[in-house]
Amino acid sequence: MVEKSIQGTYHNVSIDFNFKKKYETLLISFETRVSSNANIWILSKYNSRSKVLTKTVQIILENGNHDKYIDNESEVKSYLKKYGITTKDLDGYYDKIVNQKVLKDWCSIYDSKFSPEDYGDMTVKTQWENW
Protein backbone atom coordinates (compact mmCIF):
# COMPACT_ATOMS: atom_id res chain seq x y z
CA MET A 1 0.00 0.00 0.00
CA VAL A 2 2.63 2.56 1.02
CA GLU A 3 5.12 1.76 -1.72
CA LYS A 4 2.70 2.43 -4.60
CA SER A 5 2.32 6.10 -3.68
CA ILE A 6 5.99 6.87 -2.94
CA GLN A 7 7.89 8.43 -5.80
CA GLY A 8 11.62 8.42 -6.23
CA THR A 9 14.23 5.94 -5.15
CA TYR A 10 12.58 4.80 -1.90
CA HIS A 11 11.80 1.12 -1.51
CA ASN A 12 11.41 -1.72 0.99
CA VAL A 13 9.22 0.44 3.23
CA SER A 14 8.29 -1.71 6.20
CA ILE A 15 6.13 -1.30 9.29
CA ASP A 16 6.46 -4.02 11.92
CA PHE A 17 4.80 -4.42 15.31
CA ASN A 18 6.03 -6.67 18.11
CA PHE A 19 3.50 -6.77 20.93
CA LYS A 20 5.31 -9.35 23.07
CA LYS A 21 5.70 -7.94 26.57
CA LYS A 22 9.48 -8.35 26.37
CA TYR A 23 9.75 -6.03 23.34
CA GLU A 24 6.62 -3.93 22.76
CA THR A 25 8.12 -2.21 19.73
CA LEU A 26 7.11 -0.56 16.50
CA LEU A 27 9.63 -0.53 13.65
CA ILE A 28 9.45 1.62 10.54
CA SER A 29 12.23 1.21 8.02
CA PHE A 30 12.96 2.04 4.40
CA GLU A 31 15.77 2.14 1.90
CA THR A 32 16.89 4.71 -0.63
CA ARG A 33 19.50 4.29 -3.35
CA VAL A 34 23.01 5.71 -2.78
CA SER A 35 24.79 4.19 -5.75
CA SER A 36 24.26 1.41 -8.25
CA ASN A 37 25.35 -1.14 -5.65
CA ALA A 38 24.37 0.36 -2.29
CA ASN A 39 21.34 1.65 -0.38
CA ILE A 40 20.87 3.72 2.73
CA TRP A 41 18.70 1.85 5.22
CA ILE A 42 17.00 4.04 7.81
CA LEU A 43 15.33 2.31 10.74
CA SER A 44 13.20 3.92 13.41
CA LYS A 45 12.41 1.77 16.43
CA TYR A 46 9.89 2.86 19.04
CA ASN A 47 9.83 1.08 22.40
CA SER A 48 6.45 1.73 24.01
CA ARG A 49 7.67 0.69 27.46
CA SER A 50 10.54 3.18 27.62
CA LYS A 51 8.85 5.71 25.28
CA VAL A 52 12.05 6.05 23.26
CA LEU A 53 12.20 6.34 19.48
CA THR A 54 15.64 5.53 18.07
CA LYS A 55 16.56 6.45 14.49
CA THR A 56 19.57 4.70 12.97
CA VAL A 57 21.20 4.39 9.56
CA GLN A 58 23.12 1.61 7.83
CA ILE A 59 24.49 1.05 4.35
CA ILE A 60 23.21 -2.06 2.57
CA LEU A 61 25.72 -3.25 -0.03
CA GLU A 62 25.29 -5.20 -3.26
CA ASN A 63 21.78 -4.32 -4.36
CA GLY A 64 19.79 -4.87 -1.20
CA ASN A 65 21.51 -7.99 0.12
CA HIS A 66 20.97 -7.43 3.84
CA ASP A 67 23.73 -9.92 4.67
CA LYS A 68 26.29 -7.40 3.41
CA TYR A 69 26.04 -4.09 5.20
CA ILE A 70 27.94 -1.37 7.03
CA ASP A 71 26.69 -0.51 10.51
CA ASN A 72 29.88 0.80 12.11
CA GLU A 73 29.13 4.48 12.71
CA SER A 74 32.46 5.86 11.50
CA GLU A 75 32.32 3.72 8.35
CA VAL A 76 28.71 4.79 7.68
CA LYS A 77 29.70 8.45 8.10
CA SER A 78 32.64 7.99 5.74
CA TYR A 79 30.48 6.24 3.15
CA LEU A 80 27.82 8.97 3.28
CA LYS A 81 30.49 11.66 2.97
CA LYS A 82 31.90 9.90 -0.09
CA TYR A 83 28.49 10.27 -1.78
CA GLY A 84 27.84 13.80 -0.51
CA ILE A 85 24.94 12.79 1.74
CA THR A 86 24.52 15.06 4.75
CA THR A 87 22.66 14.71 8.03
CA LYS A 88 20.14 17.19 6.61
CA ASP A 89 19.59 14.74 3.73
CA LEU A 90 19.03 11.88 6.21
CA ASP A 91 16.51 14.03 8.11
CA GLY A 92 14.79 14.81 4.81
CA TYR A 93 14.56 11.14 3.82
CA TYR A 94 13.15 10.29 7.24
CA ASP A 95 10.63 13.13 7.13
CA LYS A 96 9.45 12.28 3.61
CA ILE A 97 8.79 8.61 4.36
CA VAL A 98 8.03 8.33 8.08
CA ASN A 99 6.35 11.66 8.83
CA GLN A 100 4.80 12.73 5.54
CA LYS A 101 3.78 9.30 4.28
CA VAL A 102 3.50 6.62 6.97
CA LEU A 103 2.39 8.73 9.95
CA LYS A 104 0.27 11.11 7.88
CA ASP A 105 -1.60 8.16 6.34
CA TRP A 106 -1.87 6.43 9.73
CA CYS A 107 -3.38 9.53 11.35
CA SER A 108 -5.86 9.97 8.49
CA ILE A 109 -7.15 6.43 9.06
CA TYR A 110 -6.90 5.96 12.83
CA ASP A 111 -7.75 8.24 15.72
CA SER A 112 -4.29 8.89 17.13
CA LYS A 113 -2.91 11.13 19.86
CA PHE A 114 0.29 11.39 17.81
CA SER A 115 0.87 13.19 14.52
CA PRO A 116 3.74 13.78 12.10
CA GLU A 117 4.28 17.15 13.79
CA ASP A 118 3.82 16.00 17.41
CA TYR A 119 5.21 12.67 18.61
CA GLY A 120 3.84 13.32 22.07
CA ASP A 121 5.60 12.36 25.29
CA MET A 122 8.61 10.41 24.06
CA THR A 123 12.34 10.77 23.72
CA VAL A 124 13.74 10.78 20.18
CA LYS A 125 17.34 9.63 19.74
CA THR A 126 18.82 10.18 16.30
CA GLN A 127 22.10 8.41 15.57
CA TRP A 128 23.26 11.09 13.14
CA GLU A 129 22.14 14.08 15.24
CA ASN A 130 25.68 15.24 16.18
CA TRP A 131 27.62 14.18 13.09
Question: Based on helices, strands and strand pairing, what is the structural class?
Answer: alpha+beta
Oligomer: single chain
Task: Give the overall average pLDDT.
Answer: 87
**For the terminal residues, how far apart are their CA atoms?**
34 Å
Radius of gyration: 15 Å
Unreliable runs: 1-5
N-to-C series of helices and strands: EEEEEHHE
Report the portion of residues in β strands.
35-45%
**Largest β sheet strand count, sense and barrel closure:** 6 strands, mixed
Total helical segments: 2
- In one word, what is the shape? globular
What is the domain tally? Answer: 1
**How helical, in percent, are the residues?**
25-40%
Total E-strand runs: 6
Key attributes of the depicted protein:
6 strands, 131 residues
Walkthrough of the structure:
There is one protein chain. The chain is of the alpha+beta class. It has one domain (3-126). Helix content is 25%, strand content 35%. The chain contains two helices and six strands; from the N terminus they run βββββααβ. Strand 4 and strand 5 form a beta hairpin. The protein is globular. Residues 1-5 have low confidence and may be disordered.
Task: Map the helices and strands.
Elements: E1 10-18, E2 25-35, E3 38-47, E4 52-61, E5 69-70, H1 73-82, H2 87-109, E6 123-126
Parallel strand pairs: 4-6
Antiparallel strand pairs: 1-2, 2-3, 3-4, 4-5
